[in-house]
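Database export, one record per block. Field names are fixed; values are copied verbatim from the stored entry.
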Amino acid sequence: MMKKVLITILIILIVFQFIRPPKNNSEGTSSNDISLVYGMPDAVHQVLVQKCYDCHSNSTYYPWYSNIQPIGWWLYSHIREGKEHLNFSEFGTYDNKKSSHKLEELSEAVTEGWMPLESYVWMHPQTKITPQETEMINNWIQSTGVEIKK
């Protein structure tokens, strides 16, 4: 009996490998990308691309383990949720009130350290935002006219 259960589980896991989530890969930079909507120094844009865009844009770099299910579905869920909350690739579609609010939230997230998520930083330690990068992002946000709460 136990052998049949294990074989059934193994078959289910194998079949599940062929059921894959859609990939979040767009070609090039969107015309609504935040870097094109606001004047943004290259250094700030690079920090956002390197540390935020995987979950908050229309272009994700997928590590090898994303091809293993159910990990791929778990990542897809995180990316979908991240884009629902903030999508740098679609920032130009936000109205002024929403875009200002999202910039305030960005400042809060990097200042308080709740973004990127610890679970993401654990697997991608290079994405941890340094105090210097936080200051650079906050200085840029202030230059857009958005007031940052301290």
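Remark 1: Residues 28-143 form one domain.
Remark 2: The chain has a mean pLDDT of 93.
End of record.
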